[in-house]
Task: structure prediction
Amino acid sequence: MAKAPTDTAPASGVRCGCKRPRKASRDKRWPLRYELYYWPTIQGRGEFIRLALEEAGADYVDVARRPGKSGVPAMMKLLDGKRIARPPFAPPFLKAGKLIVAQTANILLYLGPRLKLAPRDEAGRLWTHQLQLTIADLVVEIHDTHHPVSGWLYFEEQRPSARRRTRDFWRYRVPKFLGYFERVLHTNGGQYLVGRRLSYVDLSLFQIIEGLRYAFPKRMKRFEKKIPGVVALHDRVAKRPRVKAYLASKRRIAFSQWGIYRYFKELDG
Result:
C-alpha cells in the first residue's frame, strides 16, 4: 500500500550528505554555504530547490541526507526549536547564515537573484515568482490525483475518488495549466519562460514534466503533442551540463511511491 509521507561528477562545492564529506576549500563565488533541509528519501517539493542549486553550481549541503544526528535529527531540531524567532512550518527550508527561509516558492524567490536564475528588475522577479506560485498550485493538484480525500489514508482506501479525480485532472486541469505555460513560453519567444536566459521557473517546469512522465506515462505521451514548446524546454534543460550531471548522479533521488508523483496503473488510462 502507498501512503503519503509527512510532507508531501558533483558541481562545485556540492555535498549530498550521503557520506561524511572531506573538508574542501571554499569557492570564492559563494560567500556562504547554503543548508537545504528536506526529507532525505524523496524528491518532493525540495527537488525544485535542488535543481536551482545544482544548475548554479552553488555551495550547499542537503542536510537531512547526512548520517546520524547531523541528518534528519538536525532538521527536526530546527523544526521543533522553541528558540527560533521565525520557525519554518515544514520542510523544505533553507538556512543561509543566520537567515532561515521556508516554502519552496519563497526560497526560490530568495535564491533566484543570488544564483543568477532570476531577472534583475523587480517586475521580472515578481513575474518569475508568480509563475512559480502557479507551479505550486499544479503540484498540489498532481498530488491530489492519488490522495484526493486525505494524505493520511492509503491509496487503496480512496481508490474510487482517485480515479474520478484523475479523470478530471487530465480532462480539465492539465490542459489549463500546461496550456498556460505553453502560451507564456510562446509569448516570450519560445526559449525560456522569463526573459532571454534560464530562470528557476524553467527548471521547475522541467521537474513537472519529469514527474508527470513517471506518474502517467501513457497519458503524458498522448498529451505532449499539445505542448511542443514546453516539451522542447524540458529537453533543453535536461541537456544543460550541470543538470545532466546531477540527473546522472547519486544526488538525484529516484521517483518512488512516496513522493508527489506516484505511479498507479489504474490511474494511467
Observations:
- The longest strand covers residues 34-37.
- Residues 1-15, 18-25 have pLDDT under 50 and may be disordered.
- Residues 122-267 form a domain with the Glutathione S-transferase Yfyf (Class Pi); Chain A, domain 2 fold (CATH 1.20.1050.10).
